[in-house]
């Protein structure tokens, strides 16, 4: 190889390294600016709502007087709706991902299902609200209830859970499956005892991402009839007499934190803006708490696998 060719190769390598460096700097700068803007807005929201973050704020119902108004019905409704969402979406999503990745035959039907699941992850949330209005509210006669809202948000995050489960399982090397088969494990034993434990940390991350999206959604729950003002709580899920469980709360009317915030923001009084900022701070803490729990559980699962 001639000296001119070597110099040309070095020049090409140096140019590509320069381009990579510039791209890395631009990407890092963009990320830092975005994080700083988001952090600044969050801090400003927390500062604005700090004066309203009192114990009374959490145990008071909404009121026409901003200084007496609270988020009791909103955070209770959010908790119940998210409970239904998690119970409906997590088992179904994980089971669907396992089936599509480990059991389903690779044919045109499976390809159509995979394409539709991937596309559904990007469908606007209002479409799920309209679907739930026609199916859950009118067809199944669930009404404007906690159950209908939970199932609606479960449909919303189900594609995310399925796609995340499939990607997590796909990342497990085939040598692990072959080793399980080599010692006589069945397909289900291979999935349950080997594939699923190693991929559960990534699956859990996707589940929490989906739940974090659902907890802040407003359009679907408004579409199915969530209330903007509610001054009572659903029946408690536990009773003092046998059978000690009550499911009446599933049919109760509800409101959630984003709707309560929207109601306060739409009012002209500045005091209600402070209430909205305080509610936004609580919602942000709830979301961060969910993500923190996911990180902790993922760490514990990985530690258990190592041992």
TrEMBL record:
Short name of one Pfam family: BPD_transp_1
Tagged with keyword Cell membrane: yes
Cross-referenced PROSITE patterns: ABC_TM1 (PS50928)
Intracellular or extracellular location(s): Cell membrane
Positions of transmembrane segments: 21-47, 72-100, 120-140, 146-165, 218-235, 274-297
An example Gene Ontology biological process: phosphate ion transmembrane transport
CC terms in the record's Gene Ontology section: plasma membrane
GO molecular function: phosphate transmembrane transporter activity
UniProt keyword terms in alphabetical order: Cell membrane, Membrane, Transmembrane, Transmembrane helix, Transport
Residue ranges of domain ABC transmembrane type-1 in the record: 75-294
Coiled-coil portions: none
Membrane topology value: Multi-pass membrane protein
Top-level taxon of the source organism: Bacteria
Sequence similarity: Belongs to the binding-protein-dependent transport system permease family. CysTW subfamily.
Entries under NCBIfam families matching the protein: 3a0107s02c
Protein name: Phosphate transport system permease protein PstA
Organism: Hydrococcus rivularis NIES-593
Upper lineage: Bacteria, Bacillati, Cyanobacteriota, Cyanophyceae, Pleurocapsales
